[in-house]
Amino acid sequence: MNVIEINQLTKYYGKHRGIENVSFSVEEGEIFGFIGPNGAGKSTTIRALLSLIHPTSGSATIFGKDCIKYGSEIRRDIGYLPSEVFYYEHMKVKEVLNYSASFYDNVDTSRIASLAEVMNLDLNKRIDDLSYGNKKKVGIIQGLLHEPRLIILDEPTGGLDPLMQQTFFELIRAENKKGATVLFSSHILSEVQKLCGRVAIIKDGTIVRVENIRDMQKHNYKKFTLDYKGVMDVQHFNLEGVTNLTVNENSLHFLFKGDINRMVERLQGQYLLNLLVEEPSLEEIFMHYYQKEEKEAQP
Amino acid sequence: MNVFKKEMKANIKSLIIWCCAQVFIIFAGMMKYQGFADSQVDVNALFAAFPEEIMVVFGIGSVDITKVAGFYSVFFLYFMLLAAVHAVMFGAVAVSKEERDHCADFVYTKPVRRFQVIWPKLLAGLINILIFNIVTFCASVFFIAQHNDGNGLIDKVSLTMLALFILQLFFLALGSMFGAVLKNTKRATAAASGLVMGFFILSVAVDLYDKLDFLAIFTPFKYFEGATLMINDQLSFNSAAILLVVSLVFFVLTFVAFNRRDLST
């Protein structure tokens, strides 16, 4: 069964494009990634699902029900973490969470304390005294408090330190094991790869494709930066799978896709000042993978 | 119920301040009356020497302000202004503040319809203006009694407060409509306070120039007159009916517009 079904969803803000003909569906029980650069339309899609905004055309259903018409009913079973978390500044964390709980029937409020302990959050602090990361934790707890069947996370990890991100991922996985479906939006590929089974990729307001994370990992690009002294034979690194090779003063940049051991072999015997192997940004992946593919598809 | 409680709590401080200001105005005003009454000067003759324009702006028309009822009736203009600003701001802010505070994503993703959030807020507004009204009533009766041998003119003041409450309701509705229709709180409060100012200026203009009498219908400040209420014990039924109907229309528009709104983050 599909928990979310989006059909040709379009939103224009006046003449300004929000999203155009977005369609994809999320199956029950999966952790579905929704990935795209900033401003691609992730939040717009999510906000339309939650009927915070009204789509210009197209439709979306959640649990098989139209999400504008039955919005309030559907939202009983949705937990949502907005990308920008702001809560009533003068309230205490505890008050905000109790206020949040008061909107649902039969909430187990003991979960406030247990979730706060897992997330290491002080319930007695005032919201305006919290750091951004701690506000995010408040958001996470209010999203999970009522044990929703569908969890919608919009850029959830911003502001969380790596350790807390780990804890958060474990929390999400645990909720998922209990049966919750998760829609996870992000602009960071690696975190989506860690958590999700399938992903929809959105760019400039349209869905580029929906694919399995395994297929995506075949296109696992790494970004290399080599700092060296003196002269280096650039051609030495120009092996299969290397793209975008550029030399910039005493450093060499390239993207590499393929067996990492082959690259390690090439690096042996080189005198380097520094070596950086990074996850390329989504934009870079789009540039070197999706756009290229589009060109190949239409010669 | 939760939204209502929260809204009441959020506004309690400002309500107390508004009420204190109101009590002080009545207190200070009635002190001045004592001053007039004590001095042997013929105050009516003194004021007759003032240019009419000044008297109109201060709301002192043709009433006999040496009598306590006449003097108090002059207050009505200030009550209207203060109550209008209070009510219009409450409405405009209550409806739009979630978006201003970036909390819209919090409340409106809860399992509630939008009107279920808006109406408790408006109910809180209603209670707030009612409290403001009652405080005004109590302070008025108390201070009038002090300068009128213990007679607080309860009947006359009650009628005046009824008129005031109808105006408060009108301005609450007007403010909430601005909150629902306009882009953000800033624009809503700016438009609302601008309009209150405009209404006031128009009411002064109508008082000054007889030729402009036909414009009186466009300013709620001309729907009730302090003197008519306090001296003739009359509350215009037509005025009350028009204001109530228009208020209802504004409230309906608030709900319709807010329901259609694309909420901003």
From TrEMBL, chain A:
Any one GO MF annotation of this record: ATP binding
EC number(s) from the headed UniProt entry: 3.6.3.-
Alphabetical UniProt keywords: ATP-binding, Hydrolase, Nucleotide-binding, Transport
Broadest EC class assigned to this enzyme: hydrolase
PROSITE patterns: ABC_TRANSPORTER_1, ABC_TRANSPORTER_2
SMART domains to which the protein is assigned, alphabetical: AAA (SM00382)
Coiled coil regions in record: none
InterPro entries on file: AAA+_ATPase (IPR003593), ABC_transporter-like_ATP-bd (IPR003439), ABC_transporter-like_CS (IPR017871), ABC_transporter_ATP-binding (IPR050763), P-loop_NTPase (IPR027417)
Keyword Phosphoprotein attributed: no
Top-rank taxon, per record: Bacteria
Annotated SUPFAM superfamilies: P-loop containing nucleoside triphosphate hydrolases
ABC transporter domain sequence ranges: 4-229
UniProt record similarity statement: Belongs to the ABC transporter superfamily.
Official protein name in the record: ABC transporter ATP-binding protein
Native source species: Acetobacterium wieringae
Organism ancestry: Bacteria, Bacillati, Bacillota, Clostridia, Eubacteriales
Name of the gene: yxlF_3
UniProtKB/TrEMBL annotation, chain B:
Protein name as it appears in the record: ABC transporter permease
Organism encoding this protein: Acetobacterium wieringae
Keywords: Membrane, Transmembrane, Transmembrane helix
TM annotation in the entry: 12-31, 75-95, 122-145, 157-181, 188-206, 237-258
GO cellular component: plasma membrane
Superkingdom, natural source: Bacteria
Gene Ontology terms for molecular function: ABC-type transporter activity
